[in-house]
Amino acid sequence: MQFKQQKSFRVVIYFLYLVVFFFLFPSSFVLAIDHFSQVLIDPGHGGIDTGGTSGKRTSYYLVEKELTLDVARRLAHELRKSGLKVILTRTGDRYVDLDERVNLANRLGKGTILVSIHFDALSNRHARGIKTYFWHANSFGLATRIQRSLVKITGEKDLGVIRRRLRLTRNPTIPAVLCECGFMTNPYENKLLASASYRNTLAVAISRGILEEKRLGDFGIAPVAEIWAPLSKASDSPRHAHHKKIKRKKTVKKLEA
Ligand SMILES: [Zn+2]
């Protein structure tokens, strides 16, 4: 009887160890990102939603929705060359609601990852650099590899991998990241972003990050804990808190091909 009690006591202790370990290192139970063969590329904004603009003080008048579509198309080309299947949330200048983009991601489901492309605009012209947002633990490796690749290849200022509960990072059921690929309002980055070859460099950098994650999964990536949070809603924050609205004064210059 005593032996039986000791045994069940030991089982309880082991179980408690396991529970404690799980809470301390939840990601060690998820060895790697689910294998994926398809990338849903999301060019930010579109249609009536222009996103940010560079404003009139910069050398080139840039509109975020045009930059995002351009880089998305280039990224799609890079990924298809490497044998990945690619879907875009929009292929033209069309308004697509954020929830619609999330629904598409969730309909595609397992085997797909979501990469959203954006650019920053701030009235502070000194602000510059690149950052990548994620929310779920399963997206941290992908965000890390894309961010590293972007910073390495462009040599731009590293604003880091940032955990933020956005509709596009929190709500998808698949791994999802959002890249802010530079400031249209910064004089230096404004000139870079106006050049087709630099936009191509951005696409190549993002594709390398994605391909590295496909090859290695989360191997070598420090684990992060999953954090529960309610779904992100449109009413959570004023529309696009990361974009200062700048009045559109000049006519839009077409991007060079
Ligand atoms: Zn944006």
From TrEMBL:
Q: PANTHER family under this entry?
A: N-ACETYLMURAMOYL-L-ALANINE AMIDASE, N-ACETYLMURAMOYL-L-ALANINE AMIDASE AMIC
Q: What is this protein called?
A: N-acetylmuramoyl-L-alanine amidase
Q: Which residue windows are transmembrane per the record? A: 12-33
Upper classification of the source organism reads: Bacteria, Pseudomonadati, Verrucomicrobiota, Methylacidiphilae, Methylacidiphilales
In what ranges is there compositional bias, type Basic residues? 240-257
* Domain of life of the native organism: Bacteria
All copies of the MurNAc-LAA domain together span: 102-211
Organism this protein belongs to? Candidatus Methylacidiphilum infernorum
Report the InterPro entries cross-referenced here.
MurNAc-LAA_cat, N-acetylmuramoyl_amidase_3
